Every structure is written in C-alpha cells, then in structure tokens.
Amino acid sequence: MKGLLLKDFYMAMKYCRAYVVIAVVFSLFSIWGNTSFLIAYPILLASVIPVNLISYDEKSKWSSYSGVFPYSRQQLVSVKYLIALIALAFAVILALAGQIARMAINNAFDVDLVLSLVALLPAMGILAPSLMLPAIFKFGAEKGRIVFYVIICGFCAVFGVLGAIGEEADLANLMISMQSWLIPVITSVSVVLLAASWLLSIKVYKKKEI
Q1: How confident is the model over 93-107, as a mean pLDDT?
Q2: What is the pTM of this model?
Q3: Which residues lie closer than 8 Å to 57 by C-beta, 6 or more apart?
Q4: Which residue windows are transmembrane per the record (predicted)?
Q5: What is the distance, to the nearest Å, from the Cα of residue 189 to the centroid of all Cα atoms in its chain?
Q6: Which ranges of 107-181 would DSSP assign to H, the alpha helix?
Q7: How much is the average pLDDT of 32-57?
Q8: How distant, in Å, are the alpha carbons of 124, 126, 127, 207 from that of 184?
C-alpha cells in the first residue's frame, strides 16, 4: 500500500503541480476577496487530482500491469481515496491560511468562523470525489468524464451562488449562522457518502475487466 501511495504521490508532483500553483493563487486572492468561490475553489481542485491520476494510470496501462504486483483491487481503489483526502487536507490548510491572514490584516480574528471553515470545507470537499470516483472506476476516466464535468459544473454553480450571496451578506456571519445546524448535517452526510462511495468503487472495480 505504501508503494502505491508513493507512486501516486510522485505522479501528482509531476503532473498536477499546476493545481498546487492555482490553489495557492486563489488562497492568496481570498485574503483580499471575501467570496465563497475564492475560498472553495482550491477544495474543488483537490477533487480533480485522483481523477487525473486514474486517467494517467489508464494511459500508461498501469491498470493492466498492476495485476503482476501483490496489490488487491481494494488497495488500488483505496489509494485513490487516500490521495483525495491528502489533497483535500492540503487545500483546506491553504484556504484556512488565507482566511486567517485576512483576519490578521483586518485585525478581526473570528474563532467561530475558523471553526466553521474547519468543519465545512472538508465536508464539502469530500462530496465531489465521493460522487465522481465510482463512475470513474466503472466507466474509466474517459467515459466517466461526463459525470466528472456535470459534478464540477454543479459545484462551480453552487460556489458561484454562495459567492454572490457573500457579496451581499457578510460571509463570516453567514458561516457562523450555518454552524449550529447545517454543518453537522453536511459533515454527517459527507462521511456516510464517502464510506458508501469507497465500498461501491471497490465492488465495481473488482468486477471490472482490465
């Protein structure tokens, strides 16, 4: 499992460096721009990384070659979910760093907002890979891109709406008001969805002919 994780890490460093740069840029912009889209876009980028890694695996025929190594189908699936979670953690840290810097510049540190972001951003970031990966594992990266694009467009639309709301209302107050009821619901749903997605992907990939 460690070998699979290292393989994907090296591939991500080689092929997905642009995503890291874009995520850093958006996090920097979020320091001066109080919009949900600027905060959430790095989270969305993190969900794209495992999909791209699966695409590179298919192009390099790794899916076929992996059969000669002592790795189970479950491990091949699980490592992509681990990469998704690692990328998500990095994106959340960037988003939090941007907002903490914003608070420091404005001399208005808000513990409630930070706690809300800590709870909400990972929960929202889990949704995209949870919905995409089963379809990608079943249909492949190319055919599964239809689902991928639909989900990405849907998330962009949601973030755009939240960004528009954030311009009219104070984003901090909006996040804090959500903390008491919506965040626990989203977090619970996201965790359950991630577990169900992982199990479904394993089941699908075990039956897939490579």
Answers
A1: 81
A2: 0.80
A3: 63
A4: 12-32, 38-56, 77-101, 113-134, 146-166, 178-200
A5: 15
A6: 111-143, 145-168, 171-179
A7: 80
A8: 12, 14, 14, 35
Q: Which two tokens stand for residue 166?
A: 């954030």
**Two structure tokens written together for 181:** 């009821």
Q: What's the CA gap between 60 and 97, in Å, rounded? A: 36
Can you list the pairs that 52-61 forms with residues at least 24 positions away whose Cβ atoms lie under 8 Å?
A: 52/15, 52/16, 53/8, 53/11, 53/12, 53/15, 53/16, 53/80, 53/83, 54/80, 54/136, 54/137, 54/141, 55/141, 55/142, 56/11, 56/15, 58/140, 58/141, 58/142
The pLDDT confidence band at residue 148, using thresholds 50, 70 and 90, is low
200 pLDDT band, cuts 50/70/90, is very high
Per-residue pLDDT tens over the stretch 3-13: 888 888 888 88
